[in-house]
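Lab manual, section 2.4: Encoding a predicted structure.

Procedure: take the sequence of the chain (349 residues), apply the prediction step described in section 2.3, and record the output as structure tokens. A sample record is shown.
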Amino acid sequence: MSITVRELADKLGLSFEGDGSIEVTGVSSLDKAVRGELVFFVQAKLRPLLEGTKATAGILPAGESLDRIPLKAVLRAENPHLAFIRAISLIIPEQLQAPGVHPSAFVSPSARLSEGVSIGAMCSVGDNVEIGARTVVHPLVSIYDGVRVGADCRIHSHVSLREGVRLGDRVILHNGVQIGGDGFGYLKSPDGTHIKIPQVGTVVIEDDVEIGANSAVDRAALGTTIVRRGTKIDNLVTVAHNVDVGENAILVAQVGIGGSSKIGRGAILSGQVGVPDHIDIGDGAIIAAKSGITKNVPAGEVVSGSPHLSIRDWRKFWAVAPELYGLLKEFKKLKARVEELEAERRKKS
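Recorded output:
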């Protein structure tokens, strides 16, 4: 698809300089762009790339000099990166399945599909399912009985939505996501065998949540596992039963959250963070990659390490750690010398 610079500026609410009739056909980075593509610029250190770019048009901050810039048209924005993101969907619109049900899909007669819903090949939609307007269900998705899916959702191949789960509007589930599988709960019996604890709760995924490939959100044992509005979850993340993930939280790849823990609003858990059961992570807390959480983390705290420490203490520890072996050797020498002196003193007395 192509769009003129003038049309793009109008749709984005931006001013432009240069030839508004020039067509933009793609997007790229400053160093990889070719003729016809749009770029953006925000970092002064990348100015040489901007001056050497082969792009046709760019989104630049207000007041940025156009000296030695080869662009044929420039759009001005307070936040060029954000404007560029919005421009992408105008230049490269999402490719959607046509509304309707593929002939190879099974949809229960009791399911209710709103206007504009698309159900892909080999999907299974169970009894009493409700799917909101314009939601797209890609091939090979399994939706169990009693599921509720909101409007404008995107559910990619090999997703499973177990019985009774709830999805809000504009939820995106990437390939292989599992929502509502049984939580990991067992009781050890006197003979040493493990008795399964029934998981009879549900899962609620609120509006504007996105969940990456092969992640899992387990149903509650009792009550609800909930992922609140605006949260973004990366690939290979496990959210266990009865967890409450706050609004606009970020869970990066391979995070594991144990049962009944609570993740605060706007918290960030970096890659491979482990959170055990019944832990509270406060609003706005930041957990560095590979950290092992052992106790509650206060709101706004930044922690790192396993077991975790505040980032200030963690930095102090690792500043000293390389010297510890040498200090230990010196301590042993001093200890031996003290013992020698004590032995000499006892002999004299």
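Check your result against the sample. The two ends are 99 Å apart (CA to CA).
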